[in-house]
Specification:
Elements (H helix, E strand, L loop, with lengths): L4 H15 L12 E8 L7 E6 L17 E14 L4 E17 L3 E12 L2 E2 L4 E8 L5 E6 L6 H15 L14 E10 L2 E15 L2 E12 L5 E14 L6 E12 L5 E13 L2
Antiparallel strand pairs: 1-2, 2-9, 3-4, 3-14, 4-5, 5-6, 5-7, 7-8, 9-10, 10-11, 11-12, 12-13, 13-14
Helix pairs in contact: 1-2
Amino acid sequence: MGRWRPALVALGLIAVTAACRTSPGAGRAADPIAPVIEEATADGKPRVELLAAGATPRAPLRLTPSAGVRTDADVATVIRGRLDSGHETRVEMAYGWTGSVVDAGNDIRVAGQLDHMSFDGEPAEPLAVAFSYVLSSTGWITEFELDKPEPTPIEAALAESARQALAFLAVFPASPIGVGARWRLEVEVVQNGTPVAMTVTSTLVERDGQRARIRAELAFRSTAEGPVSIEGTGALELLVDVRQAVPTTRLTMTYVGHIAGDEPDTLRGDATMTLTPRR
């Protein structure tokens, strides 16, 4: 069973980090409108299609953190899977997340770090993955840099997962929206060498001053043949505080992974991921 563990971890990272890409969407009575394309896919950017503007009052949803704001959070991922050949396994990963806003002009520059990683409850190799990124007020990631010229494989994998997750954690429409607003996100990314197409339909279910609650349904699938291919569905909930650069996140999903090679097999499972700021 041990030889399947790397495949399970790879599938889980593909699924979880591919699925951590979102935008807001529907709630109470919404005013239907013709779909509006907010952004067109280009150079890896997602396409956001506004489906309904939501109830009045409406206002743009914008990130407005101040320089010096710091978010410390705990990230936990649980991946379970069962191979058609009969093997079952479970993987738990956890690590600390720190994000500090270093510049809050037209674009928001954030310095981040991942550390204190554990695998199945046991501390992993010493880990301190530092990175920075630039975030627009609507949630677009425009730059991501790993602050280490020669990272270890696990550091590089985690940094890439963080980059792709951050890129779509909370992307908002440019138009004013109210409770009940819905929009759809479509994007294709390459995760762990596997092209993955993602569709996320999101709903703005609550908005109170500086905070907004967003729920989303997602579907994803590999778009090319390779050693590992995956498809699945999931649900995502975000609690956004516009004064912070990272939202509270909970993801649940199910997936089917197809493993090629001399002994092909199919892995069926589920996963959860939470990012919880420390208070």
